[in-house]
């Protein structure tokens, strides 16, 4: 099969989900599947000398872009070339050090916007991702790292006509930690958008 795996990076710390997705991608390749790993938000931080399974694939939904599009109507109208400038891996790693300073309420608003996909403030990021994916071999399936990315599913299916599935790993704890009313709104939008998926994959019993 030709598989596209979409996984968020952290930029400056090890993440169990990222490491697990890396292991899955490498094993799928060993089994003979052509598997493209696409980083989102920040660069991946791999374990020691382990090679990055994304193979220098561009970073999409760059963390700085996502934040500024959430906060600034003006930035949403900036030309695409400017957004590519702030997507530089070195710059993203620098800003990753300050990610923990974002207020919980702001994080909730951004999460809700991302879950809305093509109707959210980051719609341009989704359009850019789809445009680039169309330059690659057509996939047989898209796999999302977790359902917090489910806002992409509808447009991916409409653009490529293939199934979209998602792992279940950690999104429940993240959503439950959001303050009200963001928590309730994000859970409702997650439930609505999960109807766009063709499958959900538990990573453990």
Radius of gyration: 16 Å
Helix content: 40-55%
* Apparent shape: globular
Termini separation comes to 26 Å
Order of helices and strands: EHEHHHHHHEHEHHE
**Which ranges are low-confidence, i.e. pLDDT below 50, for 5 or more consecutive residues?**
none
- Alpha-beta content class: alpha/beta
How many DSSP helices?
10
Proportion in β-strands: 5-15%
Would you count the extended β strands for me? 5
As an assembly, this protein is: single chain
Q: What does the largest sheet look like?
A: 5 strands, parallel
Account of the protein in words:
With 205 residues, the protein is of the alpha/beta class. It contains ten helices and five strands. It has a five-stranded parallel beta sheet. The longest helix is centred in the N-terminal third of the chain and has 15 residues. The chain is globular and about 45 Å long.
Topology readout:
Elements: E1 2-8, H1 16-30, E2 34-40, H2 63-71, H3 73-76, H4 80-85, H5 89-96, H6 104-115, H7 123-133, E3 141-144, H8 153-160, E4 164-168, H9 171-176, H10 182-194, E5 199-202
Parallel strand pairs: 1-2, 1-3, 3-4, 4-5
Give a quick set of tags describing it.
205 residues; alpha/beta; 5-stranded parallel sheet; 10 helices; 5 strands; 45% helix
Short description, anyone?
The chain has 10 helices and 5 strands.
């Amino acid at each position: 099969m030709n598989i596209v795996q979409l996984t968020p990076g952290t930029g400056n710390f090890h993440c169990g989900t990222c490491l697990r997705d890396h292991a899955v991608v490498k094993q799928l390749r060993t089994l003979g599947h052509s598997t493209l790993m696409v980083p989102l938000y920040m660069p991946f931080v791999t374990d020691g000398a382990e090679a990055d399974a994304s193979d220098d694939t561009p970073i999409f939904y760059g963390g700085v872009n996502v934040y500024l599009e959430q906060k600034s109507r003006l930035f949403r109208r900036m030309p695409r070339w400017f957004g590519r400038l702030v997507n530089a891996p070195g710059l993203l790693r620098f800003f990753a050090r300050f990610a923990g300073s974002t207020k919980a309420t702001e994080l909730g608003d951004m999460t809700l916007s991302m879950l809305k996909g093509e109707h959210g403030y980051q719609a341009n990021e989704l359009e850019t991702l789809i445009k680039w994916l169309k330059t690659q071999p057509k996939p047989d399936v898209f796999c999302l790292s977790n359902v917090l990315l489910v806002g992409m599913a509808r447009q991916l299916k409409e653009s490529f006509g293939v199934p979209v599935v998602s792992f279940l790993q950690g999104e429940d704890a993240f959503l439950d930690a959001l303050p009200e009313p963001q928590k309730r709104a994000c859970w409702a939008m997650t439930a609505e958008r999960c109807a766009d998926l063709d499958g959900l994959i538990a990573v453990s019993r």
